[in-house]
Amino acid sequence: MRKIKNSNNILLNILYELEADPEMVTSIHSYVELMKNISDYAGCEDLPKDFSAFSYLLCNLDIYEENIDPWGHYLHSGLAEGRQY
Fold first, then answer.
1. pLDDT in tens for each of the 85 residues of the chain?
2. Spatial separation of the C-alpha atoms in residues 27 and 2, rounded to whole Å
3. Fewer CB near the last or first residue (10 Å), C or N of the chain?
4. Would you say 35 and 53 are in contact if contact means Cβ atoms under 8 Å apart?
5. Cβ(74)–Cβ(51) below 8 Å
6. pTM, 2 dp
7. How far is CA 29 from CA 12, 15, 33, 46, 58, in A?
8. Measured distance CA(85)–CA(74) in Å, rounded
9. How far apart (Å, rounded) are the C-alpha atoms in residues 55 and 25?
10. How many CB atoms lie within 10 A of CB 70?
11. 35, 64 in Cβ contact below 8 A?
12. How many CB atoms lie within 10 A of CB 14?
């Protein structure tokens, strides 16, 4: 099992955001499903085998809020930035 750095901070942030917007999980899920159909990077072999766009967006809400392709973002900058998924 992969260990997430700063998992306590990430979890607290997610819980805070969920309290403010309980529908966020449904919205993120719908966004991931939509992006699967239009992303050039969904399912890319360069992604880690355990990469989850859903958990990547939960851990990195700024990417979701900016409507950025989670797969492409991770490959082009998220990995180098040390973003968690």
1. 555 666 677 778 778 788 888 788 899 999 999 999 999 999 999 999 999 999 999 999 999 999 999 999 999 999 999 999 9
2. 26
3. N
4. yes
5. yes
6. 0.81
7. 20, 16, 6, 22, 10
8. 9
9. 10
10. 29
11. no
12. 16
Question: Side chain identity at 9, as an amino acid letter?
Answer: N
SS3 assignment for 7-75:
HHHHHHHHHHHHHHCCCHHHHHHHHHHHHHHHCCCCCCCCCCCCCCHHHHHHHCHHHHHCCCCHHHHHH
Query: Domains of the chain: which residue ranges?
Result: 26-81
Q: Where do we find the tokens 């967006």?
A: 57
State the Rg of the chain over Cα. Answer: 13
Please give the Cα distance from 47 to 72 (Å, whole number). Answer: 9
